[in-house]
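Revision sheet: structure tokens.
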Amino acid sequence: MKFLIETDRETDGRWIAEIPALPGAMQYGNSREEALGKAQALALRILAERIEHGGHPVQPIEIYFAAA
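Predicted:
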């Protein structure tokens, strides 16, 4: 699985990172790197929840993140 993370800087200086392929996977940070890290962690929690509740086949998966 490969996920694109879109980042942008808000007018108040905070960074926002969003993974469009995972609705709700959006996090803020004081730096771009912090926002990216938080978004990746949230994405992993979302995917784990899906796997745990049968929303994704249980098989070895590889996950890649790429910042836009």
